[in-house]
């Protein structure tokens, strides 16, 4: 892969060039970004850069000055250069061609097709100029890095991570073996980088942006002269290994790590526009401990939920609430029912009950974030149930438009969760007692679920999904459904599906196709349920229908 450096003092231009081009389709990867020519020269000195996109007009050092100094460096003539220019700066562009630039891009016209054509042309020229040994050396470095990444992930998760289609060779395996043998001479720092969940949607394209996160972190670490190995470990999750020589003292290594990670976090926010935190495990000197150390680092990274992100968490940061505090809250933990009852009475006591609940919820710091959030989701559903018992739909709560799962899915701070819960409770209390509603004016939850089943009968259906659709708890919905419909939720879903299946028997579809159409992909299960409802197997029932038609 050819390594690309983008140099421009405008962050929006750097982001545009990074995002609109599918760099990997041209055999390229973004190795870094710089905001001026001086910074770019330093980065080129620490990295193997093949192609530079540089703006003509920048502070500290202009594009022309940068190109002149670049060409004076030992390897500067081998690096391809594309200049970025506004229409009015074309004189600078013409001058830049005197120093061997490949082409130019007009910044006011950053269309994917036009920019892509320039990139493709530059890549072709670079590959033609690179001799065979240089290409092989570049490819070998890339393959070795991928092999190291894979080796690390095998140690972390006992699996190969997301590294695919590595072109293995005897030379590459030999280099990897040399690297493995040299590992005992280093102090191994294993970390877990978690990107804030609010960026999940922007990471749906699981490619270029994720790789740029890794390039950015690696670039910072390698800038300090240390080796970094890094790979995806899950959605918005990266496993990181930093190798520091053993002769560096423990205290010096700790101070150095803090500086490196702080800078890496800053670069992620500045250049990639994402925020996260890194959990850093206790150092080790044995690759056999990578898995255990990563588990420790991952747990530490979870502490961003309690104490904030954008920083590193070390083992000494893992101390949870004191036992005295646990005992204090444990003896006065309150209950959800006490809170809901106070809320229903329009009694200010609900604030006290809610504060006790939130304090109690906040103690569970050893669990995953999703487990920590579970009681909060349940609490929102209980408030939903209170609203429906008074004939008020959740949609009437102004400023709270999402379901419980959606509401909490993008929050990375316990403080923000607790603040949101108080705001929601205040809005629920105000809605219950400030507005005057008739019970029949709102759509009844059972009717809402009944219509939902009629539409989604062919999909996997459960009481849990139905309760989320209705916005009330499963227990309340189950009782309400049986009371209003005269049959249980499961009985109703089964009856609707079988009725739909009978209607399809006149269509000529095969029985297994009918079963799939009504939500029973397993033919045996479909036959069993059908016979239980009708008293006949599907084949027998269809035969009976055919006979009735013939008799007519």
UniProtKB/TrEMBL annotation:
Keyword field: DNA-binding, Phosphoprotein, Transcription, Transcription regulation
Recorded superkingdom: Bacteria
Residue positions, PTM 4-aspartylphosphate: 55
PROSITE patterns in alphabetical order: HTH_ARAC_FAMILY_1, HTH_ARAC_FAMILY_2, RESPONSE_REGULATORY
Pfam families xref list: HTH_18, Response_reg
Segments forming domain Response regulatory: 3-122
Annotated HTH araC/xylS-type domain residues: 447-544
Full protein name: Two-component system, response regulator YesN
Organism: Paenibacillus segetis
């Amino acid at each position: 892969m050819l390594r690309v450096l983008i140099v421009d003092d405008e962050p929006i231009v750097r982001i545009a060039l990074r995002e609109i081009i599918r760099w990997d389709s041209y055999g390229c990867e973004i190795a870094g970004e710089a905001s001026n020519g001086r910074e770019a020269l330093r980065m080129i000195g620490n990295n193997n850069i093949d192609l530079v996109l540089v703006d003509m007009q920048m502070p500290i050092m202009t594009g022309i000055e940068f190109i002149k100094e670049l060409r004076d460096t030992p390897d500067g003539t081998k690096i391809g250069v594309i200049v970025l220019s506004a229409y009015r700066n074309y004189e600078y562009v013409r001058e830049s061609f005197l120093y061997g630039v490949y082409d130019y891009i007009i910044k006011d016209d950053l269309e994917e097709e036009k920019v892509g054509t320039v990139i493709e042309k530059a890549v072709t020229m670079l590959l033609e100029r690179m001799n065979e040994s240089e290409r092989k050396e570049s490819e070998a470095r890339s393959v070795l890095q991928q092999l190291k990444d894979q080796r690390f992930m095998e140690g972390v998760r006992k699996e190969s991570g997301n590294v695919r289609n590595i072109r293995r060779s005897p030379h590459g395996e030999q280099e990897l073996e040399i690297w493995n043998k040299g590992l005992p001479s280093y102090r191994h720092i294993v970390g877990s980088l978690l990107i804030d969940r609010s960026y999940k949607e922007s990471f749906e394209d699981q490619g270029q942006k994720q790789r740029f996160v890794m390039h950015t972190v690696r670039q910072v670490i390698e800038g300090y002269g240390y080796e970094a190995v890094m790979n995806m470990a899950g959605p918005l999750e990266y496993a990181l290994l930093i190798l520091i020589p053993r002769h560096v003292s423990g205290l010096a290594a700790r101070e150095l790590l803090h500086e490196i990670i702080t800078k890496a976090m800053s670069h992620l926010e500045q250049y990639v526009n994402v925020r996260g935190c890194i959990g850093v495990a206790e150092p080790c000197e044995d690759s056999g401990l990578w898995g255990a150390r990563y588990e420790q680092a991952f747990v530490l990274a979870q502490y961003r939920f309690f104490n904030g992100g954008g920083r590193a968490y070390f083992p000494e940061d893992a101390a949870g609430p004191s036992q005295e505090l646990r005992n204090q809250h444990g003896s006065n933990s309150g209950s959800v029912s006490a809170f809901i009852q106070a809320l229903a009475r329009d009694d200010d006591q609900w604030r006290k009950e809610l504060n006790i609940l939130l304090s109690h919820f906040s103690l569970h710091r050893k669990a995953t974030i999703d487990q920590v959030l579970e009681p909060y989701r349940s609490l929102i559903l209980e408030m939903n149930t209170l609203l429906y018992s008074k004939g008020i739909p959740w949609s009437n709560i102004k400023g709270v438009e999402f379901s419980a799962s959606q509401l909490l899915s993008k929050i990375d701070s316990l403080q923000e969760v607790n603040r949101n819960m108080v705001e929601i409770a205040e809005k629920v209390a105000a809605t219950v007692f400030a507005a005057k509603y008739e019970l029949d004016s709102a759509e009844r939850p059972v009717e809402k679920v009944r219509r939902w089943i009629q539409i989604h009968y062919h999909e996997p259906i459960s009481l849990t999904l139905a309760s989320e659709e209705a916005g009330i708890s499963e227990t309340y919905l189950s009782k309400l459904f049986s009371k209003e419909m005269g049959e249980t939720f499961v009985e109703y879903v089964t009856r609707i599906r079988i009725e739909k299946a009978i209607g399809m028997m006149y269509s000529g579809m095969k029985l297994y196709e009918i079963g799939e159409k009504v939500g029973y992909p397993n033919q045996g299960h479909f036959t069993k349920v059908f016979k239980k409802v009708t008293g006949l197997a599907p084949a027998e029932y269809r035969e009976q229908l055919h006979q009735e038609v013939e008799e007519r």
